[in-house]
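Appendix B. One record, verbatim.
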Amino acid sequence: MGEMESRCAVVHYAEIGLKGRNRPFFERTLARNIVRRLDEVGIERVERLSGRMIVYAERPLDLMTWRGALGTVFGIAHFAPAFQVERDLEAVREVVLAHLPSDPVASFRIRASRDDKTFPLTSPQIERELGAAVQERTGWPVRLKGAELVIGVEVLRDRIVVSVGRYPGPGGLPVGVSGRVGLLLSGGIDSPVAGYLALKRGCRVIPIHFHSRPFGNWMGSEARAREIVRAMNAYGMEPYLYVVPIGRQQREITVRTPVAYRVILYRRLMVRVAERLTRREKGKALFTGESLGQVASQTLDSLAVIEQAVEMPVLRPLIGMDKKEIVDIAERIGTFALSQMEGDDCCQFLMPSRVVTHPRLERVLEAEESTDMDRLVEEALAQATRVEVGP
């Protein structure tokens, strides 16, 4: 089989199918996200069927285009480029045989589904007829579970849609079904992965980036964050980020508070600012890239003290992952290399030689009184800007 171009694709979902009365809402959201993702190439329509959808493009698309688009839309379990043929089994047989892989496969199966029950053959009959034709042509064995090649046949009212092969989607829930959340996006390896996992659970993610302007390489830090947001737009991240300079607030914290508590106070400042910005965008929670025990400020005591500064839930999807697991995801989604770009992490600015691992809340509150933390939060908010990130 040569380079395959097709005007439609069959999309299957998994988790959405378990929903009850809300299922139509999840399906509509997934359909909108598919249209948005394929907007550049032109979408004619998305047809919703039972447990699946058929996406129709305005022109034939090659496999790379289909995979590049549908492979990043959360809510899709798997998909397959497909072909429309008349309601005739011989026509279906010809299309299937014409698009078989040129290389042998270990096993195959035919999976037929009749959306229109008036078709004269049942689904098992269609599967047997086409399976026999493929086996006669190739000699490949049939395997009903775990087949290497799945050939799909969708019988509709006025046509049949045939797909050869299947490609994985990212799974999860459609972005937008779970509400809005703020993401503390440092630009390092961890926080983009946390954002990816928030998107996977159907959240609209508002990225919020802090840097130490006017100190250090804050421009590199902001540029890195922008590139990460741009890359993650393919997965549904909002095409903008909030940028908050806190260099002067950090300097005041270093002058007025105990050295070992600096990083804890930096983090409390950031989550309070992030909470306010997230509320402004009608968000309901914060996501961070913290992983338990990875660094001194991520012990249980430290996380509890940081979280006490805000009322919103602070969700940490990486909490039980080790660094290798996090890096593996970052490499897969394309943010790892971007996180290596030059730029100073604001938490490294005026980094103390010793960081408290078991902070006491009363000591933290005393330190905040000496710095007038409420004032520092308001000053940081006054400097926050929303930056649009283009394609």
